[in-house]
Amino acid sequence: MNKDGIIKDYYIEPAKVPVVNFQLLNSSNKAERHAAIELLDAAFREWGFVYISNHSISSEKVDLAFEWSRRFFAQSSETKELIAHPPSGEIDDNRGWAKTGLGHTVQMVFDADEAEEFRQKNPDYKETLELGNPFSDEVPPNRWLPDHLLPGFKNFVESWWTDCATLAHSLYGSVGEALKLRNEDYFCRIHSKDDCHMTWNFYPSMRLQALHSADAKRLNAHTDFGTLTIVFQDAVGGLEVHDGHMFRPIVPIPGAVVVNVGDMLEQQSNGQWKSALHRVVGPANLMKPGSVQDGDQDNAIDRYSLVYFGVPNPSEKIEIAPGCEEPGKWKPNMSGDWGKLSARQWIEKRLAVEY
């Protein structure tokens, strides 16, 4: 890095996150399933992240989801304002379109003034669409555009939710097996209400000069709140995970979805699995000096990601899962001085300073 804070050594070796075959996780062949489960366990113990290949959502459906995401975020600001996210961090307000600058990501900061100071110095650069379970009468309703403005959007998103929830429940079973729980259905049971959350992210093109800064981030470093996070990322790149020493790229793999451990699962595993810090930065190929022509200030390409956050039933107390009594090497984020929290209370605590 030079005196102006411009990155000179732009290449960083990607994270060696394992790829686990979803079909083998669910194989009737015990040896195949055991090997896949062991690899899943190893990935979450070391990285807190894993790639899942050959999963249950077709590549055609994934491509269509990204197309719908592009179509939604391409709507005018006036149109998206019809379903604007309220400017609060209340958990029941976490629905709708959040414009760039409304939300900001902090890591384990709970003081409002400190969070605001961080926001000013470290802004996120993204738009989001925040959604809850569209089929539950027990959660706040989603905010939908009038159908004539984007025909078919609501129906597609509802079908996408179903696909993601189905995939998540399959993975919950694998999680129980990997942690050798006394009841392998434990995680399926505590997620029975599917009071989960879905975020569609749009990272607009931004000035290349800004992306050359050593501190440039599209999304600040953070850990996720819940149990399992399922991330569909496009081919642009920019997702990075901290390996304990530095951030390393989670390179997009065609056909594979990224799955990572959140704070609640780290707590439930008694620190055996890692809720890892991760962030989104500029695409690596644009960080190379001389990779673009001088004067071309706005060619940091748009990036999209589709995220499903697994969250236990709201009243579920987040405690050590039966079978995880032996502590691991990670200190869970939830092991503060605030006592035993429910799933809802932990999300309320972390979400409160992000809007």
TrEMBL record:
An annotated Gene Ontology molecular function: metal ion binding
Name recorded for this polypeptide: 2OG-Fe(II) oxygenase superfamily protein
Gene Ontology BP terms: small molecule biosynthetic process
Keyword annotations: Iron, Metal-binding, Oxidoreductase
Superkingdom of the source species: Eukaryota
One Pfam family per UniProt: DIOX_N
Similarity comment: family membership: Belongs to the iron/ascorbate-dependent oxidoreductase family.
Species of the source: Talaromyces proteolyticus
Keyword RNA-binding included in the entry's annotation: no
Domain Fe2OG dioxygenase residue range list: 192-312
Statement: the UniProt record of this protein carries the keyword Metal-binding: yes
